[in-house]
Amino acid sequence: MQAIIFQGFEWSNTWFFLSGPCALLLLLWSVLDKNNKRRWGGSIVASGLFLVFALSARPLEYGELKFHSSLSATDVETAYRESLDLSRNTGRPVLYYFHADWCSNCEELIRRLERKDILRRLDSFILVSIDVTEEREYEKARSIFGLNAVPSLAFAESGELLNFILAGVSFPESALTGVLEKLKKTPDPMDRTSRL
Q1: DSSP characters for 71-130?
Q2: Could you tell me the pTM of the whole model?
Q3: Band (44; pLDDT cuts 50, 70, 90)
Q4: Distance between CA atoms of 133 and 124, rounded to whole angstroms?
Q5: 114: phi then psi, degrees, rounded to nearest 5
Q6: With bands split at pLDDT 50, 70 and 90, how would you rate the model's confidence at 6?
Q7: What integer best gives the mean pLDDT of the chain?
Q8: Predicted pLDDT of residue 195
Q9: Strand 152-157, strand 160-167: pairing
Q10: pLDDT interval class at 3 (50, 70, 90)
Q11: Strand order from edge to edge, sheet including 9-11
């Protein structure tokens, strides 16, 4: 079963998460029930379910996302060209993160990428941050990557740009984890470029 993430917490499976809403419904039913015995019984079971819900929740853990410093400091065309060369030479996939100063959701997407479970999947990626605040850079990103919204994520593998973009912050979690798992390579411990 897939983990459930809600309000900064994670439950290892759906059943643990559902114990919370079930407890709430049972407690509501118990309070409204006229039968004293059922009211107490329902309250006790609801308390047990709330306990399962609370004890099975873990706070999400975050780390720091580190972008490739030299690629992220260049213009769109240079970052594109050099990242594909680096991907081709190292065999590592590339994640492009598009952001702008005027973007209100960019921090939300970064926060999503900084979750430890996502960071583990990004270990083998070349991470490139591309600032498209200036109209000229946005237009270049639009023509090269097909960018139509900020924030967005684009991907490349083996020196080839992949033909899809995850735009905005409302894309499903499974879309992000699916592409990361598909592209993920095991990092070579002798490869010093993986630390850039």
Answers
A1: HHTS-HHHHHHHHHHHHHHH---EEEEEE-TT-SSHHHHHHHHTBHHHHHHTTTSEEEEE
A2: 0.76
A3: very high
A4: 28
A5: -85, -5
A6: confident
A7: 90
A8: 39
A9: antiparallel
A10: confident
A11: 4-6, 9-11, 57-59
The pair of structure tokens assigned to 177 is 């984890």
- Enter the tokens of residue 191: 């490869």
- At position 75, the amino acid (one-letter code) is D
Strands 4-6, 9-11: pairing kind = antiparallel
For the segment 74-92, the average pLDDT, to the nearest whole number, is 95
Q: Does residue 101 have a pLDDT over 90?
A: yes
Tokens representing 87 are 């991907």
Q: How far apart are CA 148 and CA 139, in angstroms?
A: 9
Q: How far apart are CA 88 and CA 195, in angstroms?
A: 17
- Cα separation, 86 vs 127, in Å, equals 11
What are the structure tokens assigned to 161, written together?
């740009």
Are the C-beta atoms of 108 and 169 separated by less than 8 Å? Answer: yes
46 phi, psi to nearest 5 deg: -60, -40
Q: Is 66 left (phi over 0), alpha (psi -120 to 50) or beta?
A: beta
Asked whether 46 and 27 are in contact (CB, 8 A), the reply is yes
Tokens of 63: 């780390």
